[in-house]
Amino acid sequence: MRTDHAFSSNPQSQPSTAPTNMTKHTITPINKNWTFKQGDKEDSKFLPVAQFPTNVHLDLIANNIIADPFIGKNENDVQWIGEVPWVYKTTFTSPSLTKEERGDIKAVLAFDGLDTYATVVLNGEEILKTESMFIPDRVDVTTHLKKEGDNELEITFESAYLKGCAIVEKYPDHHWGCWNGDTSRLAVRKAQYHWGWDWGPTLMTCGPWRPINLEIFSSRISDVYFTSDVDKSLRSAKLVAKTDVEGGASDVAFTISLDGKEVASKTVKTSNGHAEHTFEISDPALWYPVRYGEQPLYTITASLLQSGSEIDQQTKKFGLRRAKLIQRSMPEQPGTTFFFEINNIPIFCGGSDWIPADNFIPRISKEKYYDWVKLVADGNQFMIRVWGGGIFEEQAFYDACDELGILVWQDFMFGCGNYPGFPEFLALVKTEAEENVKLLRHHPSIVIWAGNNEDYQYQESEGLTYDPENKDAESWLKTNFPARYIYEKILDDICKELIPDTYYHFGSPWGGKNTTDPTVGDLHQWNVWHGSQEKYQNFDKLVGRFVSEFGMEAFPNIKTIESFLPLGKDDPDRFAQSSTVDFHNKADGHERRIALYLVENFRYAPDPLEQFIYSTQLMQAECLASAYRLWKRQWKGPGKEYCGGALVWQINDCWPVTSWAIVDYYLRPKHAYYTVKREMAPISLGVTRKEHMIPKDKHTRAYIEKKTKIEIWGSNLTLKDITADVVVKAFDVISGKETYSKTVKSDFLLPENRSTEIIDFDVPVQHVNSGEETRIVVAAYLYEEGVQIARYINWPEPLKYVHLQKPKHLTAELSKDGKMVELSAEVPIKGVAVECEDEDVSFGDNLVDVVPGEVVSIAVKGANKGTKITTRYLGMV
Ligand code: BMA
């Protein structure tokens, strides 16, 4: 008889269907006294963990056993960690309960996330084995807990890498293959970027990465959820509130409240472990994306009642909004639209792709998540795509998106490869998808789920079998692309059942003839940087209905580089081409590609490092802004939504690195963050130059008139029509002289929520065919009732041909109140960056072009009288 383990004194005494005594549901975090050690070494001692939840790298760093893998090339020295087992151990006491309470209670250990192959032993008995870091597990430990004294909980994590290798070998018939990492990742349900990616180190960590709790209850609410339907009129909403109940409690009281005030409530009987009630909410407070309205969040509370007393309660915040993905044909262009409409408002979805914000997730604080999302919102962006090679993010991330009005595109966790389809794998995938959809479905910010990242692109590139006509799902499993069954059957069924109101997309990209079809679905546009390495000036030709990825690399802030150099500022490798700096760039061919785009566009040099960093950031900023500008131009209003959004690859980094990120690991924006922000301003102007050759006759090669036309358009992303004057000026780049100034349109109408072509005309020159255009800078301004509401400066390109002058009088003055930096100069200057040593000083804008006769103001925070602000610009060095 196991007297020492019999926590429930009389488990059979109370039939669970008609309990009389009920205990309140209590949740006790098991987060104390944890120690860890290497599992395959006899002599290794248990050491204290760094924090809880945690992972093995954080604990080894905290115990000074390994050096920080983010510094120098330490990553290389810590690879052994991923190939050995690790053991975590703690003790905890059993809750003391009265005799009556013991009768019908259950004790459950809830593991929110164990990364990945864990064997859990409680008081010497194995209670759980896991195979996915994404699946939360609950284990009934009622009969395992000790009545008195400490319980011992021990978790052993095996090497996920070696397990993956073994699975790959076990299924030799599967066509294993992937981009990034190695194929063992495809077999393992663990964050795929842990295997290394083209922006991240290989750090195969493990551990209890999410909380572990001990729950005591007789009956409990296992989930609170709902479906919602906001009427097209936006005047009413139907909310079907639901709970699932474990145990025999009989009633659930639902309360809906807003700003602390009750809006509706209802108590209902549970039946077969379920209770639901339909609420009609009239004049609902609607949740909007940032800039388009407020983000009111309702609270739904479900209280579990037994004999009138509350024994459990769960609350969730939610928002009511009507979210649709509009895919319809257009009269003048092929294919279909792909844009989001929230509360009947079509949104041009400028935004970013998101990767995990650290290699070691447990150390990302709630505040850091909030700061990241705030940066996105402050950058005039509306959407974040949670990319499939990372994790289903922490609640804090989505909470911040809900609060700040950022739409979320959520991928399922598959990326860049050919995933297997053997039964155990499919079963894991199914549970993982169900559990994570349930965890996230209340967030109003999530407006789309997608099956994977680029797995269809991988299928196309490898020529794996895919017959769109074949609708027999079971047969897909027999092909060399079995994962089609995951994306088009398993995930599709789950989404239909669990989130019928949210659009599910088979993959990103997906739609049309294939993944590169620019007329249907979304597109990853990598022909700038990867692929055919197009010039970024040609982004207009590379448009798609919704570009969910495109990008360009740039070096991070100098302080970020110094942070990873072992000797910081004094490190002998503190130069652009050094081996340590190269090591902190994981992209294939990065040296060549950065150099290619630099050399095509700018006069630049690798030294000094600060100016080189500036050059790469200028290049990235010009590149990304040009994509935004040219694609947003294709947002032309009802029936002409030729492009419905652009998401930059990528907003963030998981360590200090040179990558496509527009903000680095330490949340230091690169200059592209600001140029993208300007493009997504409520009102903006776009200008482009096009060369036209007009031969005098059919055969001549000598008598050709060359004209350079500028095209000007305005983008009004507000929901109000605007009437404005359009002023165009021209300047000689060498003398600084204004050579042209004219109001080219008066009272010009820019209708709401679209881009409108304004005018095109020849670059104003004194002498036709003299090549003068190449020294003329064109400045366009929009004035509404005399107030400047937008400006854009257009330069001859490539900029490397332009004889840029060093200004004699570039002033960057702090305004008297310290809230503005005012820039002015006597010659046109490209890309003036303001910089400040003091990290508490931040700027609202950066990298601006300046032409003579104007003062460009940049908002500044945290500055005072003594603050020293310096400038940098193209051609300075
Ligand atoms: C995209 C992404 C990532 C990758 C990026 C840059 O396609 O989906 O897999 O990091 O390209 O190469």
UniProtKB/TrEMBL annotation:
Name of the protein described by the UniProt record: Beta-mannosidase B
Start and end residues of each Beta-mannosidase Ig-fold domain: 804-862
Pathway in which the depicted protein is active: Glycan metabolism; N-glycan degradation
Compartment(s) where it occurs, according to its Swiss-Prot or TrEMBL record: Secreted
Protein family per UniProt: Belongs to the glycosyl hydrolase 2 family. Beta-mannosidase B subfamily.
Residues of the Beta-mannosidase-like galactose-binding domain: 34-210
Keyword annotations: Carbohydrate metabolism, Glycoprotein, Glycosidase, Hydrolase, Polysaccharide degradation, Secreted
Source organism: Phialocephala subalpina
Domain of life: Eukaryota
Subunit structure: Homodimer.
